[in-house]
Amino acid sequence: MTAPVIRALAARYYTDPSVYEAERERLLARTWQFAGHASQLANPGDYFAFEISGESLFCIKGRDGVVRTFYNVCQHRAHQLLSGAGSVRVLVCPYHAWTYELTGELRAGPNLAAVEGFERAMVCLTEVRTEVFANFIFVNLDDDARPMDEWFPGVRDEFMEWVPDWERLQPLEWVEVQERCNWKISVENYSECYHCARNHHTFTSGVVKPQTYDIRPQGYCLRHTTECAGIDMLTYEIDTTRPHAEEYSSWFLWPMFSFQVYPGNVLNTYHWRALDPQNVVAWRGWYTVDGGDSETIRRLAAQDRATTVEEDILLVESVQRGLKSRGYVPGPLVIDPERGLRSEHSIQIMQQWVRNALDD
Ligand code: FES
Ligand SMILES: [Fe+2]
Predict the structure, then answer these.
(1) How far is residue 247's CA from residue 226's CA, in Å, rounded to a whole number?
(2) pTM of the entire structure?
(3) Measured from the CB, is residue 77 less than 6 Å from ligand 1?
């Protein structure tokens, strides 16, 4: 018996605001989302604010060295507490000056003693599940979410093996990429290389050896691996004595983050933020030991922005326009049982994750 043809998701998943609202509740608020890098919080009291699908949050380091995340809202009458990044001794609400400890407990407020029956312990900032994963801070708005090591089995150990300097790395550059498309179009495009040969000349001729390219699921991670085209063709020097120095590997952590390691154990990352149903921002992160300047890394970041990233923007924005066409009927995915570069099995897997989140 032949297996049925698998069709791509219907267009409304990418265009309909009600699908996006359902995703915010049932998918984005229940998965691990990248918040920032631990090096952004070097000292107690250091914080940064950010948004995950419309929720304002902030991460802050306690005096005990623990990184905590809170909803960015005062528990008095809902003024927001922080914006941007900086350092504080205690959290002071700008509205009526209630103050909170770095652990979220209420410390004091003007004239609170006048309130009969009031106890400080009644009030505490609302905390968000947080994990520091090899110095990358992730949050999950679902208090019952399973830990990242269960979502992404084996990834932490592999990452540390491929990126031996991980403890000393700091971001050197964040490159912001605006895309006028639904976030899923962008992450799907990232997660298949069926389009690479036609569209990414630099990537397929300089970085990877296409016939060895593979993508396979590892829990909710999609792991990309490939051997590299002649290491001598690389435009930068690498230390080939280090393990995995001659490989390319990436770990896409569903739904909006990816670690990529280029030959020479060079780490870069992707993280996406959905802005609305038809707009997403992708950030490319580039890291160096102690955040030291590196002409090589800056050149790689600029080259990547000018080639692969630029090529992908044109693709994903055209798809968003195409999905609005009355004439579009979702086509069959190209699922090759042998997987490989020219297969869309990874798209089938991701689209099933979307259906599971929205339809259960
Ligand atoms: S809203 Fe924060 S102190 Fe009143
Ligand atoms: Fe691409």
Answers:
(1) 7
(2) 0.96
(3) yes
